[in-house]
């Protein structure tokens, strides 16, 4: 798909499909006004006749409007000015992109006019339109014998004012990069557990390193991890015929001497629960238990594509959690890389076990900040549902940056407390710490466990169990929280420059 910023007078744009917006109460955007005038009041007549109200989500396809060069015009209802929101805008762009791909047109122009001429607003609107329309083009067919028909749509153009071209072009490049990161994350998430193994993730990381000169990768195997003393990560991988891996990716975009920011992803390529076996219903969805890994890999890809002037380290703790005669048993005690011992009371609480060793390993990079991303607890779905990522942190300044980034990117997180009082739920009679803290506040006690391994840096934990994939008919990975993470790093890059 080719995305491009264009400037033109709306009625003269030769395209197969021009997309314009009208607010409720006949609130015309400048482009809608121009099209209405060129077509001698066609749109106003439509509204007067009660055929279009402009309420949010309404859409109407108009063909061969008199005086308008575009072959088709899609009229989109933007709703009342005071009631617009990012999630509504996202739904609008996503569904409109679906409509134009179904129409089978080869080109389309989004002319949704930013509500202001402020550079920041232009950037944000253009980036979101690019990002959401590009992301809406993703479809999965990797393991289907019949491939989806290639879509006919080749050009998506975004109409901009002359003075705003430069800002809009930057926004478009960022939007495409983030959308590519989201699509890569979705693809990795959707691939089944028999294909997407720890070894497959390692290969994916190596492919990123060959594609981008700014990315390098090192893969630690089971012998190296045993040698290092990663007893917790190894305990999770032990039951499987496929060995675990620790992927270490480095993106170099700033001076070598500059300390990196770090992302750590949970890469359980299938979570059976291990000896603490999960119930059978919907167990297939545990192939998505590597979506944290997918999102940090999608993020480094997007960051490299945007060539951000920062340094970034991405760790992926990859393992398959299986029951077998070699598997870890409830009650087993292991020694982590940090030296702390853990009583594994439930082998299904495996995410924190692979992450804790990765968190200790990341210390060696002296990171400015560390964010781990994991489909960590079912309890997070109970707490926040499928809307918000759960955020817990040992540093409020970092937490605030993440909350802001999620808000900006339309990929929101919500903070939960990480008070000391919760820590006692992890007391063990046989080790320094237990790997489960009982039913109350399951999301928080999981983060408490991780916090014991994150004492040496500013750290935040993102529990994406509720947002990483959709269940039911639309089953599939969402690519969250690539947009949030990219925005967090874009903000850091911008902060550096100013
Ligand atoms: N991967 C799961 C968490 C999960 C469950 C994500 C359902 C999405 C949907 C994780 O490894 C797990 O099994 N967590 C346990 C922890 C418990 C044993 C303390 C859980 O949430 O039940
Ligand atoms: Mn589990
Ligand atoms: Zn898991």
Roughly how much helix do the residues carry, as a percent range?
A: 25-40%
Order of strands in the sheet with most strands: 8-9-11-10-14-18-15-16
Mean pLDDT: 97
Specify the CATH architecture of the largest domain: 3-Layer(aba) Sandwich
| CATH top level label of the largest domain | Alpha Beta
For CATH, the homologous superfamily of the largest domain is named as Zn peptidases
In this structure, how is the largest beta sheet organized? 8 strands, mixed
Number of helices: 14
Radius of gyration over alpha carbons? 24 Å
Which of globular, elongated, flat, extended, rod-shaped describes the shape? elongated
Q: How much β-strand is present in the residues? A: 15-25%
Q: How many separate domains?
A: 2
Low-confidence stretches: none
Q: What ions, cofactors and ligands are bound? A: ligand BES, manganese (II) ion, zinc ion
Decide which structural class fits the backbone. alpha/beta
